[in-house]
Amino acid sequence: MIKPTLEGELVRLRPIGARDGGGLWEIVSDPESRRVTGQTAAFTRAEVDAWCATVADRDGRIDLAVTASGSDDFLGQIVLKDIDEARGCADLHLSMRPSTRGRGYGGDAIGLVLGLAFDGVGLHRVGLEVLSINTRAQAIYEGMGFVVEGLRRDAYRDGDGWCDAVEMGILEDEYRFGLPA
């Protein structure tokens, strides 16, 4: 599987490694991050560190650290997972450190990974799931060309209540049509 380093306007993506444990720990232990991603599993810092140290060796996925151009500081992670080359599809996941949200890093990272998915890996479709309470993320994905494909009602907890999971996807032709000339 391709383990690339990609350069965008705002970000540089590189394979996640052991040095990224602290940044990923900040994401998985942040209450708001857990809420808007529907994360219910609890991880220890040691588990997060071990994950970062070994994830690059796992098949069927590409886990990349989002760093600012000109810096190697971990801002977030973007993952192309459940890659099925025979079916030509994969799922996308993005999570950013709380202090880095809203600065355009995520959108730049998504664009780079879509280019990798369609031009590097040769996929036909990239899908994702976003919680209905995460309207900022849904707007970013729609702006990148993702289309709402379905809704799983009350699929996640939101405090004492429930929220829906919005299923979204983008096809290779939609990606190519949406690229600037």
UniProtKB/TrEMBL annotation:
Residues 11-173 form the N-acetyltransferase domain. Transmembrane segments: none annotated. Keywords: Acyltransferase, Transferase. InterPro entries: Acyl_CoA_acyltransferase, GNAT_dom, N-acetyltransferase. Gene3D superfamilies: 3.40.630.30. One of its GO terms (molecular function) is acyltransferase activity, transferring groups other than amino-acyl groups. The keyword 4Fe-4S does not apply. Pfam families: Acetyltransf_3. Belongs to the acetyltransferase family. RimJ subfamily. This is GNAT family N-acetyltransferase.
